[in-house]
Amino acid sequence: MALPTALMNLAPNLDDIIFNAFMNVLPDDQLTNAHLRPLIARMLGLKCGRSIQIRRNIYFEEHRKIVVGSSVFLNRQAYLDASGGIRIGDNVRFGPQVMLITGTHEIGTSGMRTGPLTCKPIIIGKGCWLGARVMVTPGVTIGEGCVVSAGAVVQRSMPPDFLIAGNPARPISPLGEGRGPTEKSPEQ
Length: 188
Known about the structure:
Number of domains: 1
Number of strands: 19
Distance between the termini: 80 Å
CATH architecture: 3 Solenoid
């Protein structure tokens, strides 16, 4: 007996459906976020380092194409579309509702503007902090040590150690080794 068409269409996504069900059915508490959810994520194919925290209500698309470093915090309601691959460095922090989207469409003809799907990887460098509702688009690399301001839409790659903000996002000011933007000394 042949499987119904609806079930056949689900087959390629079944891995992600199962993964997301397990990730999001568990409670949102410290023990689950820091230990149980990362353990289950590893068992189901997410490549991730040690000491990560994964909050509830995160949607992973093509989770097997995501590589997460150590000491990473993935906050609630994030959306990770890894069609083109996602690499997140060590010591990265996400604010709520961060979106990493690796897929887009070429512009088609006037009869149908949605053209062919194209996917490009996203790389988030180590030590970055992405504020609430940051969106990162296909093909972007955010350099190490950046702070991306809440609501920024990052459409091009960014240099390391910068405060990034805006829509479209742009480097606002360099960040020093300490805390916050670098400031000129009084003698300069």
